[in-house]
């Protein structure tokens, strides 16, 4: 009887012990120096000397990244958040004051809105932001990248659920390259999407459903890539592309339009026949 009583007391004591703090996200380790709470939230408070790279991937339980999650991690140069399909919310201000950040990748998640990157304040040249394969993000809003970096940037925004890019979306940026390829539902890019931006030098809109390019802000483009862009049946005036050097296009008539300057200023080139014969020049740029 005493043995049963002792065993019962030991069992009750074990049951009353507080649960251990989780050290891992389901299916993936919790990256140092972060804490991964039972409610699915992630925090990575600093300062942490020497930490330059942080990778969060292959997690089934991460659901939220809180505001100031990476606060004071001043030496971080790379953050990768990938293959976390249950991550549905990144709070505004999650990425704050990261002056040495060079590369931020957020790919294959469940987030519904473009994450707030306007408080990163990176001072690195050619900052790279990669947002890809996030199928629930439908809109690129105004001023989405303002404050992210005070130097030049490369935006790799491909394979998402984008349907619309709003006016002034790239305001306040100096764009080297903008990749919008493989956004299969992207139909509309506001005519003032590039208003307030410098660049881009390279624009890739391949495999989208864009029906037209904005007529404002094309003068910086040196390379235009628009393969498998079957909905793009007309182009702005050739004079809008004052610095264009190379173009890879979908239709032969696109090619002809670029080779033959229109007689009327600001006229648009339209596809008359989808099977127009190729231009008698090779290569057709």
Automatic annotation (TrEMBL):
Q: What is its main location?
A: membrane
As given in the record, the signal peptide range reads 1-22
**Could you tell me which Pfam families the record lists for this protein?**
LRR_5, LRR_8
Query: What does the organism's lineage look like at the top?
Result: Eukaryota, Metazoa, Chordata, Craniata, Vertebrata
A single GO molecular function term of this UniProt record: G protein-coupled receptor activity
Q: What topology does the record note for this protein and the membrane?
A: Multi-pass membrane protein
Task: Please indicate which superkingdom the organism of origin belongs to.
Answer: Eukaryota
Species source reads: Sus scrofa (Pig)
Where does it localize? Answer: Cell membrane
Q: What is this protein called?
A: Luteinizing hormone/choriogonadotropin receptor
Give the InterPro entries listed for this entry: Leu-rich_rpt, LRR_5, LRR_dom_sf
This protein's GO cellular component annotations are: plasma membrane
Which SUPFAM superfamilies does UniProt cross-reference here? Answer: L domain-like
Instruction: Recite the UniProt keywords alphabetically.
Output: Cell membrane, G-protein coupled receptor, Leucine-rich repeat, Membrane, Receptor, Signal, Transducer
């Amino acid at each position: 009887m005493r043995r049963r009583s002792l065993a019962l007391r030991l069992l009750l004591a074990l049951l009353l012990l507080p649960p251990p703090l989780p050290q891992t996200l389901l299916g993936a380790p919790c990256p140092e120096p972060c804490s991964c709470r039972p409610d699915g939230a992630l925090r990575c408070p600093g300062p942490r000397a020497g930490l330059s790279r942080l990778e969060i991937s292959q997690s089934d339980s991460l659901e939220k990244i809180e505001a100031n999650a990476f606060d004071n991690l001043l030496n971080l140069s790379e953050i990768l958040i990938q293959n976390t399909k249950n991550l549905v919310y990144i709070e505004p201000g999650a990425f704050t004051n990261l002056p040495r950040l060079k590369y931020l990748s957020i790919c294959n998640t469940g987030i519904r809105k473009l994450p707030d990157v306007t408080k990163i304040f990176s001072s690195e040249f050619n900052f790279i932001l990669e947002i890809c394969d996030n199928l629930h993000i439908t809109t690129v809003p105004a001023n989405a990248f303002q404050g992210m970096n005070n130097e030049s940037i490369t935006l790799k925004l491909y394979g998402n659920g984008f349907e619309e890019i709003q006016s002034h979306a790239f305001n306040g940026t100096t764009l080297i390259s903008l990749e919008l390829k493989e956004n299969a539902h992207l139909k509309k890019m506001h005519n003032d999407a590039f208003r307030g931006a410098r660049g881009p030098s390279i624009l890739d809109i391949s495999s989208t459903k864009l029906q037209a390019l904005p007529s404002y802000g094309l003068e910086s483009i040196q390379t235009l890539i628009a393969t498998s862009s079957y909905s793009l049946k007309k182009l702005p005036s050739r004079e809008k592309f004052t610095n264009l050097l190379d173009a890879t296009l979908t239709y032969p008539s696109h090619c002809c339009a670029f080779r033959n300057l229109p007689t009327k200023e600001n006229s648009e080139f339209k596809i008359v026949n989808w099977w127009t014969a190729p231009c008698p020049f090779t290569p057709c740029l």
